Amino acid sequence: MLAKEIVYSILDLVHAAGSDDMIITEEHVLFLCKKYRAFLIKKEQEKEKATTDIASEFEYQEICLDLEKVAAEGNLCGGFYLRTTKPIPKILEGTTPRVYPVDFYNGTNITYVPKDKMRYVGNNKYLQNVIYSSLGTDFHLYLNSNNPQFAYLTKIRMSAIFEDPEEAAKLACPTEGESSNTSCDPFEQEFPIREYLVPLLIELVAKQVSGAIYRKVDDANNAADDLAKGNVKG
Length: 234
Prior knowledge:
Blueprint: H1 3-16, H2 26-51, E1 61-71, E2 80-84, E3 98-101, E4 110-112, H3 115-118, E5 131-135, E6 141-144, E7 155-160, H4 165-169, H5 198-217, H6 226-229
Parallel strand pairs: 4-5
Antiparallel strand pairs: 1-2, 1-7, 2-6, 3-7, 5-6
């Protein structure tokens, strides 16, 4: 579902509640949609932990990232890491991204690990060919491995649930023959949330916007509900 379809549905509900004369920007509604999206996904995750359901693919976005070599500090033997040239958009807390080569089916195994564990990987002789990746404190993704093919990687893909879908869309993987597979207009982009959560998202954001309008208009310092009585001017 496109972001604009959700935003306009919310605005229709708010206006239907008697707020036609209030200025509500589409950008603010989209901002609230992103916040409530994260809230709803976390609630679904709590349910999934109890039911062992597989997380929905609707929330995942795939981005493509270029890699560069960076020296491993303190390594006197000339070691290096591979690092993404751009920082990674913030990943939703409690979710784990998937990292793989541009060609998903080429057999290269890239394992995502926490940054604290990254210091100890690569010593198991049975896992010599595994390429490890982790998110650094600078929000760049780092890769390390004893696999000889590791040094020839120049690009990778990452699939994750990002807090801000708009920021992730800027790094979306291009489709064949095109520079990008997503619109530059955030309202024309697919809003990554499972479909059955859309009605609840619309309802929550509409209530948030309507509630804010109510508090703003009925600001008289008395115990009466002036807005309901029609005593407050817009």
